[in-house]
Write a structure and sequence with these properties.
Elements: E1 5-7, H1 12-21, E2 25-28, H2 34-39, E3 47-50, E4 60-62, E5 66-70, H3 75-80, H4 82-87, H5 89-95, H6 101-106, H7 109-115, H8 122-129, E6 132-135, E7 139-141, H9 142-145, E8 146-148, E9 151-152, E10 160-166, E11 170-177, E12 184-192, E13 198-203, E14 210-211, H10 213-221, H11 225-229, H12 246-263
Parallel strand pairs: 1-3, 2-3
Antiparallel strand pairs: 4-5, 5-10, 6-7, 6-10, 8-9, 11-12, 12-13, 13-14
Length: 264
C-alpha cells in the first residue's frame, strides 16, 4: 500500500472541496472495495476522504409509502431495523445475507451503490423496488443510475446522500451465493406494487445489474412461481467464469425468480 493523505470532513461540501483539490482522491464509505484494492496495489489514491464523520450521514426513516436509508447506514443497522423489517421485510432479509457479520457492521449502502459491483445485492433491490438515489446535487432513478460494470451515473463531485425505497405490496429476494465470498452468483429481487406492476432486479448474472423484463412481463400476466420459472432466459451477455457458465446463470435466474415469487 502506498502512502496517502487521510481526510475526515464533517460536511459533504467540505468532502467535495477536498476531492476537487486532490489530483487523485477517493471517497471512503465502508471501504470494503477501496481498502483491499489499495493493499493489492490496484489503487493508489493520494488522498482518501472518509465520509463517515459527516453529520447526519446515517439513519433510517420510514413513512407510509417510503423507506429512506441514508448513505452511511451500515448493513447491520438496516437488517436489524424493526421499521425496515416491518415495511419491506425482503430488503432487511436480503441485507442480512451480505457477507459476514464483520462486513455488515462496516459496509454501507452508499458505498455499495457507488461501487456497483456486478455481484452486489443492494443494486438488485434498487431496481427491484424502483428506488431513487439522492445525491448532494440531484435525485436519480435506479433505472438510470447503474450504467455498467463498476460504473454509475454519479459525477466526480457527487456523493450519495440517501436512498428512497417505495414500499411494495409484495417482495422477496433470493440469492445463490458463492460459498467462499458470499457474493451472488445470481441474485433476484422481485416486487409487486399496489397496482399489480412487477419489477425484477437481477445481480451477479451479468457485468451490470439489470431488470429481467421477460420475467416481469410474465408476472404482470400471472403473478405465480410457475409463470416466473417457466421463462426461458437467454445466456447471451451473461457472465461465464470458473464458478458458473452463462447458461447456468440463465437457468438460475428463472429458478430464483420462481422461488422469489413463491416466497413473496
Amino acid at each position: 500500500m502506498e502512502n496517502f493523505n487521510y481526510h475526515r470532513p464533517a460536511t459533504t461540501t467540505a468532502a467535495v472541496a477536498l476531492l476537487k483539490k486532490s489530483k487523485d482522491g477517493k471517497f471512503l464509505a465502508g471501504g470494503h472495495t477501496l481498502i483491499p484494492t489499495m493493499k493489492q496495489g490496484l489503487a493508489a489514491p493520494r488522498d482518501v476522504i472518509d465520509l463517515t464523520a459527516i453529520k447526519g450521514f446515517s439513519g433510517i426513516k420510514v413513512s407510509k409509502t417510503m423507506v429512506t436509508i441514508k448513505a452511511g447506514t451500515t448493513h447491520q443497522d438496516v437488517t436489524m431495523s424493526k421499521d425496515v423489517n416491518k415495511a419491506i421485510p425482503a430488503l432487511a432479509q436480503m441485507v442480512g445475507k451480505i457477507g459476514g457479520v464483520h462486513v455488515r457492521h462496516k459496509g454501507t449502502i452508499g458505498g455499495s451503490l457507488a461501487n456497483n459491483d456486478p455481484a452486489a445485492d443492494y443494486p438488485s433491490a434498487c431496481l427491484g423496488l424502483g428506488a431513487t438515489i439522492e445525491t448532494n446535487k440531484r435525485k436519480i432513478e435506479a433505472d438510470k443510475f447503474f450504467t455498467g460494470m463498476f460504473e454509475t451515473a454519479l459525477k466526480n463531485d457527487e456523493i450519495i446522500i440517501a436512498v428512497h425505497f417505495p414500499i411494495p405490496k409484495k417482495a422477496s429476494h433470493q440469492k445463490f451465493p458463492n460459498p467462499a465470498s458470499r457474493y451472488a452468483m445470481v441474485g433476484v429481487f422481485v416486487s409487486q406494487d399496489g397496482k399489480g406492476k412487477t419489477r425484477v432486479g437481477v445481480t451477479g448474472a451479468a457485468p451490470c445489474v439489470f431488470r429481467a423484463v421477460e420475467v416481469e412481463a410474465a408476472l404482470n400476466e400471472e403473478f405465480s412461481a410457475k409463470a416466473a420459472s417457466a421463462v426461458k432466459i437467454s445466456a447471451k451477455g451473461l457472465l461465464s467464469d470458473m464458478h458458473a457458465s452463462a447458461a447456468y446463470r440463465a437457468h438460475l435466474l428463472s429458478v430464483l425468480a420462481g422461488r422469489a415469487v413463491a416466497a413473496a
